[in-house]
Design a protein that fits this description.
heterodimer, A: 6-stranded mixed β-sheet, 5-stranded antiparallel β-sheet, about 55% strand, B: about 120 residues, 7-stranded mixed β-sheet, 4-stranded antiparallel β-sheet
Chain lengths: ~110, ~120
């Protein structure tokens, strides 16, 4: 919704990496959040980015390019348990609310 | 610290019924959000309260959906009358005040609503 787009599915292999992309074209931008949601569970906050560039947080890193309306979540040294949906959400300044993308379902195979 | 709690966890309703979903935010959180989640639409914002005041009423959802927050530790979402297309998971979330704080929302386990 609100111009936040994510691919539906992504597959990768245990021990490698996965990059979950997010593009946005919203009227206003204060920052972008990433959430992980396992099947049948509520979303869990992972990261919030405001500044351009790569924010390295170990297993999860995030990249933001404000001029291009683009972000990605990078998962390294993948484990089977990383299989989940990953949601990006743009933080809008006018109403101080998050507008979520529909999420990318990541499947990590052995 | 208790997280966000929601009741009931599952609800089955007949078309035309009135249902009320309940949420208790994390203690001390000033912001409370109601979302609806479906596979097709993803997470859609229904309502947003800041310090018990309604800030966002979800536009298209105003007609049959009414969220209230009578005190800082309890909120309800009423759907009246229910329709089969309302079948979804309803999530409640809360967050701290402040710019960065509002970007980190704590979600409850959700209520799975099925309307027959």
């Amino acid at each position: 919704g609100q111009g936040v787009e994510q691919p539906d599915n992504l597959m990768s292999v245990e021990g490698t990496f996965a990059r979950v992309n997010c593009t946005y074209s919203t009227s206003g931008f204060n920052g972008l959040s990433w959430y992980q949601q396992r099947e049948g569970h509520a979303p869990v906050f992972l990261s919030y980015v405001v500044l351009d560039g790569l924010k390295d947080s170990g297993h999860f890193s995030t990249f933001l390019s404000r001029s291009n309306g683009y972000s990605y979540l990078l998962l390294t040294e993948l484990q089977i348990k990383d299989s989940a949906s990953y949601l990006c959400a743009v933080f809008m300044p006018n109403y101080n609310v998050l507008y979520f993308g529909s999420g990318t379902k990541l499947t990590v195979e052995p | 610290d208790a997280g966000v709690t929601q009741t009931p966890r599952h609800e089955v309703a007949e078309k035309g019924q009135t249902i009320i979903l309940k949420c208790e935010p994390v203690s001390g959180h000033n912001d409370l959000f109601w979302y609806r989640q479906t596979k097709i639409q993803g997470l859609e914002l229904l309502s947003y309260f800041r310090s018990k005041s309604l800030m966002e009423d979800g536009g298209a959802f105003k007609d049959r959906f009414k969220a209230e927050m009578l005190n800082s530790s309890f909120s309800t979402l009423k759907i009246q009358p229910t329709e089969p297309k309302d079948s979804a998971v309803y999530l409640c979330a809360s967050s701290h005040p402040g710019l960065g704080g509002r970007a980190e929302q704590f979600f409850g386990p959700g209520t799975r609503l099925t309307v027959l």
